[in-house]
Amino acid sequence: MPVKVVLVEPEEPMNVGAVARAMKNFGLKDLALVNPGPRVGPPFPPEAFWLAVHAEDVLEGAVVYPGLKEAVAEAELVVATTGRPRELYPAPLRTPKEVAQEVQKAEEVALVFGRERIGLTNEELDLAHLIGYIPTAPEQPSLNLAQAVVVFAYELFQASQAPKDLPPKEELASARALEDFFQDLGHYLLEIGFTDQNRFPYAMRRLRRIFHKARLSPGEVQMLRGLLHQSRYAMGRKDGG
């Protein structure tokens, strides 16, 4: 499956080893680490391999990135996971099974898991097209990192084995292209006074969600960026620029 599992700032090498094993159990091989802790490789310490039973190749093939943007840049679908509902993303949070169905429609997917203690920041969640959430009993809502990975990996594997009756996969804009568009859009919003610096993060977060739902193609992103560029040009001519 073309799914990259991305771990943001993992701190425990044994957790990464357990994640590698969970990935190998369900046919996932592409592991990415974003700014891993000092004891987390590569090169990995021996304790990472203690739990990566028969998944040493997953560990050895892990790629390190300096930031999440770089890790997901080429993905058409970025799925971030959270351990709790958040006001900024009230609905719909997707269960692992629902995420797995969406993954079947995309060519390149990044499945992102946050830090062991605090998960993902709101700014990191902004990069995601979908937010995945594992429903749990309220008296013990948190899952170990490897446990969370295995739940999603299982559902991805199950969906990949099911008889296919899906429409042809559509070409979607990469995360890198979308981030370039959002940067243009943010500058434009401030230029026209749609929002101010204080309200800007909230406005952009809402607009990101709208455009992520649209599942834009590369051509559509280019058209939107062209629209912003032409609008700036027209405003400059009107003002005598």
UniProtKB/TrEMBL annotation:
<dbReference type="GO" id="GO:0002128">
    <property type="term" value="P:tRNA nucleoside ribose methylation"/>
</dbReference>
<keyword id="KW-0489">Methyltransferase</keyword>
<dbReference type="GO" id="GO:0003723">
    <property type="term" value="F:RNA binding"/>
</dbReference>
<dbReference type="InterPro" id="IPR004384">
    <property type="entry name" value="RNA_MeTrfase_TrmJ/LasT"/>
</dbReference>
<keyword id="KW-0819">tRNA processing</keyword>
<dbReference type="InterPro" id="IPR029026">
    <property type="entry name" value="tRNA_m1G_MTases_N"/>
</dbReference>
<comment type="similarity">
    <text>Belongs to the class IV-like SAM-binding methyltransferase superfamily. RNA methyltransferase TrmH family.</text>
</comment>
<dbReference type="GO" id="GO:0005829">
    <property type="term" value="C:cytosol"/>
</dbReference>
<keyword id="KW-0963">Cytoplasm</keyword>
<feature type="domain" description="tRNA/rRNA methyltransferase SpoU type">
    <location>
        <begin position="3"/>
        <end position="154"/>
    </location>
</feature>
<dbReference type="GO" id="GO:0160206">
    <property type="term" value="F:tRNA (cytidine(32)/uridine(32)-2'-O)-methyltransferase activity"/>
</dbReference>
<keyword id="KW-0808">Transferase</keyword>
<comment type="subunit">
    <text>Homodimer.</text>
</comment>
<comment type="function">
    <text>Catalyzes the formation of 2'O-methylated cytidine (Cm32) or 2'O-methylated uridine (Um32) at position 32 in tRNA.</text>
</comment>
<dbReference type="InterPro" id="IPR001537">
    <property type="entry name" value="SpoU_MeTrfase"/>
</dbReference>
<protein>
    <recommendedName>
        <fullName>tRNA (cytidine/uridine-2'-O-)-methyltransferase TrmJ</fullName>
        <ecNumber>2.1.1.200</ecNumber>
    </recommendedName>
</protein>
<keyword id="KW-0949">S-adenosyl-L-methionine</keyword>
<dbReference type="InterPro" id="IPR029028">
    <property type="entry name" value="Alpha/beta_knot_MTases"/>
</dbReference>
<dbReference type="GO" id="GO:0106339">
    <property type="term" value="F:tRNA (cytidine(32)-2'-O)-methyltransferase activity"/>
</dbReference>
<dbReference type="Pfam" id="PF00588">
    <property type="entry name" value="SpoU_methylase"/>
</dbReference>
